[in-house]
Amino acid sequence: MAMVTAFIPKGYPQDTKDRFSAALGDVECIGFDMSRDFEHVYLHEFDAVHCDEVMRRTKYLVIYTGAGKSTAAKERVVQLFRQKCDEVFGPNDTQNAAVVIEEHPN
Predict the structure, then answer these.
(1) pLDDT tens across 66-102, in order?
(2) N or C: which terminal CB in the chain sees fewer CB atoms within 10 Å?
């Protein structure tokens, strides 16, 4: 089980957001080797008016998941997230791709 929330600045077209949401499902399910039955993805857009250039070009992923995920799985999630950001937004759009994984007891 994992709940995935990505944070991106407002302003992307709907088709881009739709492709990114689908890509987040890949990050979650491929990264943690999970069945698609347990896919849970949420996309949140923030207002970047008061953000500096680095913040505007950073994509964030927060994952709340059960305890015991291997280091290899976590590394796979981080790599997939960066890869999917580059595929969906273009390689020059994302300056930073930050991932926070919060594990909780089963």
Answers:
(1) 999 999 999 999 999 999 999 999 988 998 999 999 9
(2) C
pLDDT on residue 32: 94
Tell me which residue of 30, 5, 23, 19 sits closest to 83, measured CA to CA: 23
List alpha helices for 32-94, DSSP H: 53-56, 71-89
Of all residues in the chain, the percent with pLDDT exceeding 70 is 100
Give the relative orientation of helices 71-89 and 14-31 as an angle to the nearest 10 degrees: 160
Tokens of 69: 């995920």
Tokens of 32: 């943690």
Token pair 């849970």 is found at 40
> What is the torsion angle, in degrees rounded to the nearest 10, for the CA atoms of residue 51, residue 99, residue 80 and residue 36?
-110
